[in-house]
TrEMBL record, chain A:
Pfam families: BPD_transp_1, BPD_transp_1_N. It comes from Xaviernesmea oryzae. Residues 104-313 form the ABC transmembrane type-1 domain. The lineage of its organism: Bacteria, Pseudomonadati, Pseudomonadota, Alphaproteobacteria, Hyphomicrobiales. It comes from the Bacteria. One of its GO terms (biological process) is transmembrane transport. Belongs to the binding-protein-dependent transport system permease family. This is Peptide/nickel transport system permease protein. Keywords: Cell membrane, Membrane, Transmembrane, Transmembrane helix, Transport. It is a multi-pass membrane protein.
From TrEMBL, chain B:
It comes from Xaviernesmea oryzae. It holds the Pfam family BPD_transp_1. One of its GO terms (biological process) is transmembrane transport. InterPro entries: BP-dependent_transpt_permease, MetI-like, MetI-like_sf. This is Peptide/nickel transport system permease protein. It is a multi-pass membrane protein.
Length: 325, 279
């Protein structure tokens, strides 16, 4: 018992350390990329067209701390970022942290909605295909899943808009309404982006569900239960699905982190004002502090979600714990 | 033996055969697209903007009255160049990194594989966005950026395969005979890890096409007036009401191409490496 608690603590410690190192490396990467990239933020800030005087440039440079050695800039930046201070937007001087805090929940909401949709579609289809392996139903479902994986998310999104908002007029094509202002409108605008993001994912969830269920169906204990004369229905519901559930749920959880990347295109095409929209806009405007803050927030969300999911499942399922360690 | 197996698969699996035919056609269009184009893909015609298909324009016209079919035909090339270039970069460097990660000194192994893990823990599109957002965007820079982003994926595969090979007896024999590291890598390791690398290459081509078209869709990839399918889809979104077929054609072609690559990749995996088979 003690040994297993110690093992669990060790596992938590190791995963925390890994996540911390990952964050540190990503933060360093984000910081250094800003210095490799062309374009002078000071000129941008003062407006290159207005021909600022050298004194004004120097003054701004020291105000931003850009006249310090790069290494000390790095540590100051890192220290501030640790305190959730990402500096101020170059265009209007608002704190970057405010933008991040405003947009982060919207991105998370989109990702969570998409994953719920994907699971609700993908898991039943995957189970249905696995239970009738090799049948016509299996072939059709597996082919649909392969197609679903191949169609890019922005094509799915465009087709959804074409059909559900232009043709049928059921749902708005894009935009965002805050939930505090109009609950129904909020979810109506969430529907299409969430489906666009969720449909492709449901295809890969269906594929993975199918192979996990098939894997369990091939185990010896299933054959034993059959030999014992247990009804097929009971075998499937009580034994097969229960055993297949853990890998399926783990896979779905890990996809949540990956969705942080998938939101980039979906947010852009549906004008969903999340972190990716913030990032794309900031990149185009060369708004360095905003780019850094948004990137770091997305990376941190990605790493933390994966950390939490992995920890939860490896602690819940002793088999995963043993396999990983 | 392997070509024979591929030939057999084309006979028994029509989807595989169809995918290969489609991919060959796409490559041919990529090479000869500008000759095949029935009209000048850059010719503006303000008189016939956003039209449906007609005798003059088989697939209709875009928002500047340019011939859609011609633009679709020449739009293949940048996408293919980016995908192949990126896969070549990722394949060469990823394989080297992966072999070094399995075969180098312990410290080298540790540093390489931990960096690979960290790179893998980050969505590629975000890094690509950052890179192309600041640099001049074009076929070469897109290929380099996407190629670099997929180095860790190749490295992971090459690493695992090399570890497997290095446990085999002929490796011991090589060492016993005093073979140099270069000889071991080129004559013993590389030929034996080729199969998973080929499969990984098909996955990377598909991923690179998706990434390039996604970036072009966002307006951060191939620069207009030069067309690419992703960029055409992105532009066509603004004209869904006037000319829905404008978005349908490039979407269909792009989706079919990626689907064909995935089908071929799945089959190749079954043929080249039966142990990796899903079921």
């Amino acid at each position: 018992m003690n040994a297993s608690i110690a093992g669990a603590l060790l596992l938590v410690a190791r995963k925390l350390l890994t996540a911390f190192v990952q964050l540190l490396v990503v933060a360093t990467l984000i910081f250094s990329v800003m210095y490799i990239m062309p374009g002078d933020p000071v000129l941008l800030l003062l407006g290159a067209d207005s021909n600022p005087s050298p004194e004004a440039i120097a003054a701004m440079r020291s105000q931003l701390g850009l006249d310090q050695p790069v290494l000390s800039q790095y540590f100051v930046w890192l220290w501030n970022a640790l305190h959730l201070d990402f500096g101020k937007s170059l265009t209007n001087g608002y704190p970057v942290a405010n933008y991040v805090m405003q947009n982060l929940p919207r991105t998370l909401e989109l990702a969570v909605a998409a994953i719920i949709i994907a699971a609700l579609i993908g898991v039943p289809l995957g189970i249905a295909a696995a239970l009738k392996r090799g049948s016509m139903r299996d072939t059709v479902l597996t082919s649909i899943a392969t197609i679903g994986i191949s169609v890019p998310v922005y094509i799915v999104g465009t087709l959804l808009v074409l059909f559900f908002s232009l043709k049928l007029g059921w749902l708005p094509a894009s935009g965002y309404t805050d939930i505090s202002r109009n609950v129904l409108e909020h979810f109506r605008k969430l529907a299409l982006p969430a489906f666009a993001l969720g449909l492709g994912l449901s295809a890969s969830i269906a594929r993975m569900t199918r192979s996990s269920v098939l894997e369990i169906l091939g185990r010896d204990f299933v054959r034993a239960l059959r030999a014992k004369g247990m009804s097929e229905r009971r075998i499937i519901w009580q034994h097969v699905l229960r055993n297949a559930a853990i890998p399926i749920v783990t896979i779905i959880g890990l996809q949540l982190g990956n969705l942080m990347g998938g939101t980039v295109l979906v947010e852009a095409m549906f004008n969903w004002p999340g972190l990716s929209t913030l990032l794309v806009g900031a990149v185009s405007a060369r708004n360095y502090p905003l780019v850094q803050g948004a990137m770091l927030a997305i990376a941190a969300a990605f790493i933390l979600i994966n950390l939490v999911v992995e920890l939860l499942y490896s602690l819940l399922d002793p088999r995963i714990r043993r396999k990983r360690s | 033996m392997i070509p024979a197996a591929i030939l057999r698969a084309t006979r028994s699996q029509p989807a595989f055969l169809a995918s290969i035919v489609l991919l060959v056609a796409v490559v041919l269009i990529g090479v000869f697209g500008s000759w095949l184009a029935p009209q000048d893909p850059f010719l503006l015609d303000p008189q016939s903007v956003n039209q449906g298909s007609s005798a003059a324009h088989w697939l209709g016209t875009d928002e500047f009255g340019r011939d859609l079919l011609s633009r679709l035909l020449i739009g293949v090339q940048p996408t293919l160049l980016v995908a192949i270039g990126a896969t070549a970069i990722a394949g060469v460097f990823g394989t080297m990194v992966g072999i070094a990660g399995a075969y180098g000194r312990p410290l080298v192994q540790f540093l390489i594989m931990r960096s690979v893990d960290i790179m893998l823990s980050f969505p590629p599109i975000l890094l690509a966005l950052l890179a192309v957002g600041f640099w001049e965007s074009g076929v070469l820079s897109l290929a380099v950026v996407i190629g670099v982003l997929y180095i860790p994926h190749f490295a992971r595969v090459a690493h695992a395969a090399t570890l497997q090979v290095s446990r085999m007896e002929f490796m011991e024999a090589e060492h016993a005979m005093g073979a140099s590291a270069g000889r071991v890598v080129f004559t013993a390791i590389l030929p034996n890890i080729l199969s998973p690398l080929v499969v990984q290459a098909t996955l990377t081509v598909a991923a690179a096409i998706l990434l390039e078209s996604g970036l072009s869709f966002l307006g951060l990839g191939i620069v207009p007036p030069e067309p690419s399918w992703g960029q055409m889809i992105g532009t066509a979104r603004g004209y869904l009401g006037q000319n829905p077929m404008y978005v349908i054609w490039p979407s269909l072609l792009l989706a079919l191409t990626v689907l064909a690559i995935n089908v071929v990749g799945d089959r190749l995996r079954d043929i080249l490496d039966p142990r990796l088979r899903e079921e």
